[in-house]
Amino acid sequence: MKKNMQSTFALCVVALSISLGTTACAGTSGGSGSRAVLYDSLESLQKDSEAAVLVTVTGQKEFAKTDSASAYVASTATVEEPFSPASLGEKQGTTALAAGATIRIRQLGALNDSEGAPMLQPGGQYVLFIVPTEAPGAMSDEFYITGGTAGMYRLDEGARAESGAFEKIGNEGDTLPATITLKDLQN
Fold first, then answer.
1. Low-confidence ranges of the chain (pLDDT < 70)
2. What pTM was estimated for this model as a whole?
3. Cβ atoms within 10 A of the Cβ of 103, count?
4. What is the pLDDT of residue 84?
5. Hey, which of 30, 131, 145, 187 would disulfide with 151, CB 3.0 to 4.6 Å?
6. Are 146 and 131 in contact (CB under 8 A)?
């Protein structure tokens, strides 16, 4: 009887360990790592962003994982148009981005990782909701996309930014509009 109780107890400990391990790994993740916030509206995304910008991606560089940093891709982009929607976050104005400015967007992961979050593509036009990286050694022109892929909308190839719809990229559990236009971002 004592042996059966010990076996049962051991099985329960193993089952509990597997269950907790699976739960701990089941969080929402994406281009900015593990996420604590899922966005339910464009306004909530804007509130957590320091800037909203229309950009054209001009280049990329991949950085390998080190002892002190995760692997990431830095995309260089030209700001085509900055936006100031009324619901933009409290930090609004602390980052002065003007048309023509060059910024870098950091996305965690690797370029050829088919299971990772979608990456910005050179030549693509995007509306991005961004926050400064504030990473050690980062320059003031380096940003993360708010909420991983939550703050990433891509213009369809061949469409014009002024009249086209920007499509939501990635799905990490947010309930955001599938498409937005530039008019959605103007006061």
1. 1-35, 90-96, 187
2. 0.78
3. 21
4. 81
5. 145
6. yes
Q: Give the per-residue pLDDT at 168.
A: 94
Considering only CA atoms, which of 54, 70, 66, 71 is closest in space to residue 129? 54
Buried b (16+ CB within 10 A) or exposed e, 75-93: bbbbbbbbbebeebbeebe
Structure tokens at 35: 């996420």
Task: Look at residue 158 in the predicted model and tell me its pLDDT.
Answer: 73
**E-state strands within the chain:** 29-30, 33-34, 51-63, 72-83, 102-108, 125-132, 142-145, 152-155, 166-168, 179-180
Residue 68, CB-side half-sphere exposure with 13 Å CA sphere: 3
| Confidence at residue 27, expressed as pLDDT on a 0 to 100 scale | 35
Domain boundaries, the chain: 33-185
